[in-house]
Amino acid sequence: MSAATGGPMDVSRFPSFLDRLEDREALAASEIAAELDPDREVDGVVYHDRGIRVPGYEATFVREPPGSRSTPAFSVQLDAVGPRSCWAVFDASMRWELYLVRSPEMAALAWMNDEEYAAEEAGQFGSKRAAVAAGRFSFGVFLYAGADWEAERALLEGSRAPALVQREDGRSFRPDDQAAFYEFVNATPEQFRATGGGAPAYLGVLELEVSIAD
Fold this sequence. Notes:
By secondary structure, this protein is an alpha+beta fold.
């Protein structure tokens, strides 16, 4: 499932993403946005994973420790609103590109690998960059400031829902609690994490955690 964005956008590539993450070990979303768009204010973010949306104060790309997995990996870790836990681990042996995509209505960091592009977008778009510009990306960190951020934060603050979930018709659904969320995604918490939320292998998701503390 790709992000709905409302039309083609300006796209800036974050150069040498994995090499820089290897050198730095961690890169905050607000830090990346500041490099690519110095005038942009970021008060909060929303992590997007194929229609699952979780608000947070910051998202950080982290190099997973060498040797901790059978394949090199990086994670995206969310400082989530409320008692939520949200992180995802991705296969760093794939070829990934990270982009800032923006229009007058929105801005997001989006990342895509060659395998996802070949499987889902190559028939329609001539490059990953073109696919991302059309809003065709599975993973993103949407950037918010001011009243827009307060509105996003309020959607889950004080609720027992781990995340907002996009229905097939594009409308957002807020589960009543964690049990309702896992019923909606048709998995147990352990299955959901281990399969990356049911992601096909070409997406490169190794693990996905979306939960809320009791």
